[in-house]
Amino acid sequence: MTELHHEAFDYEPNMRRLRAVIAVAEAGSVIRAAEALHLSQPAVTRAVRDLEKELGLALFERHRNGMLCTTAGKIVLHRFRRALHKLGDAESALARMQPEGHFERLTQRLSHRQLTVLVAVADLHNEPLAAQRLGLTQPAVSGNLRDLERLLGVSLFLRTQRGMLATDCGAVLIRHAKVALRELSLVSDDLSAWQGEVRGRLVIGTLPLSSSLLVPHAVDALLRELPGLSVTIIEGTYAALFEALRNGEIDILIGALRQAGTSEDTHQQRLFHDRLAVAVRRGHPLMQHASLTLRDLLDAQWIAPRQGTPARVSFEQEFRSAGLEPPSVAVESGNLSTIRTLLLNSDRVTLVSPHQVFFEVQSNQLSLLPIKLTGTLRPIGITTRVDDSPTRALKVLKDILLRLGERMADPASLART
After folding, report:
1. Residue 308: helix, strand or coil by DSSP?
2. What is the DSSP string of 286-312?
3. How confident is the model over 330-379, as pLDDT tens digits?
4. Residue 6: which pLDDT band, with cuts at 50, 70 and 90?
5. SS3 of 164, please?
6. Cβ atoms of 351 and 278 closer than 8 Å
7. Which of 11, 83, 167, 370 is the most buried (most CB within 10 A)?
8. Integer Cα distance of 19 and 27 in angstroms
9. Between 392-407 and 168-194, two packed helices, what is the crossing angle to 10 degrees?
């Protein structure tokens, strides 16, 4: 079979084909793979050929002495093995949680349909909505979920007035299933990159501090280098984005790094340190002073981050570093658009990263007061999964972020690029 250039390598993930390809690669022949899988030789041959036909690529070179993976085969095999490894991790974790469950040989018993149903119900908490998303009937969704719970011998969801909520066992399987499904979806991206054109979708999670300047500049540079790529940017709280990263729903998290709240399966990399500044509207009465201290602003109308957030801790630490008690706060908000409007229409003040209000300062809407702050520097960086195998697009984005990080100490330099 000749290797053809494709617009996109779309294929229908199928666990039977996946296991067949892995078995043939490991055994080096269809006969030995069939024996290992307890299937007939024609069934294994058909599974491999069907996938090759769907991709339009030869995954194996047929020799008299056996089957050898082509380059395309190695690319496909890499993602298939990672997907099965994730499901194997789920098997081990579930066995530790519920010794009485039926988790043996889990990777050989799960179907792709069961995994997609599991994830859809977990996301939507509702079987009819899950059926609508997947293009299935509700009885089909209910049946697949029921079969999966029977197969495992545990309940995966609690049926409540708030909808279907994952049990502890369900949450573990859902997390690993999402990452496994993401690995299978990356087969097409890897094959396109191998043939010289990066396609697919990169999902970036961004925290407020990085969403105004760092991420837009990075994405702009990324799409100039890889114009065939599609990028999705998701903003949210650290907790929500961190879980989405662990679940494989986003590829990278960009923003303020955390000392707490991380896990062994994630890795943080610092890009630069950020320091806060005091922002006010243009023409604010305080701008008439050549120099100020935080003591001069204790009676100001302060806008501050919400209580309990790391940003609020930084806000309060700035004052304590100056030997002052934090002031009374008139408004609590973490939304930059809201803060901007509140500043523009009043004499309120706020502590903010200069990167967050860079364009407002450039356009003379806002100004930074002449105050030298001595509080703790905040590390800004990226968080990824420890066991991630990054696509070409993610590697390029990381390189771009590292280059930008070196220049973020001087935000004005970014405006000149």
Report:
1. coil
2. GGGSS-B-GGGGTTS-EEEPPTTSHHH
3. 899 988 889 999 999 999 999 988 888 888 999 999 999 998 887 767 88
4. very low
5. strand
6. yes
7. 83
8. 12
9. 90
